[in-house]
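To make this tangible, this section ends with a sequence with its structure tokens:
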Amino acid sequence: MKHLYANLYTWSAILAIVFASVVGDVRLSRAMKQVGDVGALRRRQGLWTVIVRVLGNQNFVLGVAAMAVAFFSLLFALSWGDVSLVAPAAASLTFIGNAFAAKIFLHERVDQRRWIAAVLVAGGVALLAG
């Protein structure tokens, strides 16, 4: 019974990592698209302007907060499960989540090769879980 709870805790933490990472990645991507080309902005208006624009962007702040949640979820997952399961499962499921989120929320074109890669990654996660 104790092993069952450890497994439940581990997979719950992995799902928290994936959700928070995907939210963080989407928010950060949206923020940086709103800020624009930081190199050109730095050349035109200076580094301070870049810092103010990035740190003043709500999507950036929420993205960083989500990534912090993902990091602390990773710490919990590693305290309950093996790194040989937690790290690859979290990374691969985040890859799959990012593909879906990029298509749905950022309206990015996700080509067939990326969908095939996502399916293969999902197969790898299934092998890890089993």
About this structure: The chain is about 90% helix and 0% strand. The chain has one domain: 2-129.
